[in-house]
Amino acid sequence: MSATQAVARPASRPMSGWRLVFDLFKLRIGIAIGATALMGLAIAPGTVSFWSAAAVVLGVTLASAAAGAFNQYVERDLDRAMRRTRHRAFVTGRLVAGPLWPVVIAAVACSGVALAWIGSNALAALYTALGAFTYGVVYTVWLKRRTAWNIVIGGLAGSFAVLAGAAAVAPATPDPVTLAFAVVLFLWTPPHFWSLAIAYRDDYATARVPMLPVVAGDAAAARAVFSGAALLVAATLVPGFLGLSWFYVALAIAGGTLLLIRAAQLALEPSRKRALASFHASLIQLSFLIVAAIADPIFRA
Question: Of 204, 80, 70, 54, which Cα lies nearest the Cα of 137?
Fold first, then answer.
């Protein structure tokens, strides 16, 4: 999501072709989503070949990247109105938003889904497609301009990445641990993005995007961040009761504690500085969870 691109570059700064592609397809986010698919691979019961695992992770990353590019294509009018995003290629004219772009973006998305299908199975491909569809269409097209619940429902995109990874190992009904992690990814998105939205509330207000701080105010949004963070941290402990190792629990507690501290500070002082600190804490917490889940089989062996 655009959440990781919190600091805008000056529009006049030259950009290499590789950097242009990296930013257009939001590959920071795509790689993070691919890592959550790897999380699903690690925690699902069973084994899978290296090539199948690589195909699913790459497929999820490509599909997520396509959804990110589609987001920029559709939202170029909003991006133009926001200081944080007015450097993007469709706004500055480095890329012309012609009719060929949806075809290119669809081709990238289909390549990702096809890779997950060929390299793994149809269920992994379905979850890969649903993740991209949720972010690209449900969040970007249907919800973002209409409701403050936009990012809550949009959080399902991360859940589908976990399910895609797990389906590559166990193509059946998700087991309780996999479902627990899908819930964790769903709950992670609101406090993460609402923190950013508080920091850039004026941007969203100017663009008339009904993010929670615009609709309810910074103080109410900050309280929602803390409540969401508390619910999230509680959810991250559930896998520990379902058999994951002490190593996972230790990292979940460490990352969760940091997030709760930053979210509490934001609730007490709903400022831009505190909002950005909470936003970055959520990224650290997710990184801890990904590392903990991927390394967990070693500590359970």
Answer: 70
Number of other residues whose CB lies within 10 A of the CB of residue 97: 15
State yes or no: pLDDT of 2 exceeds 60: no
Q: Which residue is it, tokens 């690209």?
A: 136
Calpha distance 243→245 (Å, rounded) = 6
Establish if 11 belongs to a structural domain: no
How far is residue 197's CA from residue 195's CA, in Å, rounded to a whole number?
5
What separation in angstroms does the CA of 106 have from each of 11, 63, 263?
27, 9, 38
**What average pLDDT does range 143-149 have in this prediction?**
94
Q: Is the pTM of this model over 0.85?
A: yes
Alpha carbons 87 and 251: distance in angstroms, whole number: 36
Q: Collapse the DSSP code of 229 into the 3-class scheme (helix H, G, I; strand E, B; otherwise coil) and give the result.
A: helix
Q: What is the token pair recorded at 41?
A: 């691979």
Q: How far apart are the first and last CA of the chain?
A: 35
Neighbours of 261 (CB within 10 A): 14
Mean pLDDT of the chain, nearest integer: 93
Across the range 59-84, mean pLDDT stands at 96
Distance CA 269, CA 123 (A): 45
| Domain presence at residue 28 | yes
Give me the number of domains the chain comprises. Answer: 1
CA distance 152 to 56: 25
Where in the sequence is the domain holding 139, given as residue range(s)?
2-6+17-300
In a domain, 206, yes or no: yes
Q: How far is CA 301 from the centre of its chain?
A: 30
pLDDT digits (tens, 9 = 90+) for 155-214: 899 999 999 999 999 998 899 999 999 999 999 999 999 999 999 999 999 999 999 999
12 is a domain residue: no
- CA 105 – CA 3 distance, rounded (Å): 20
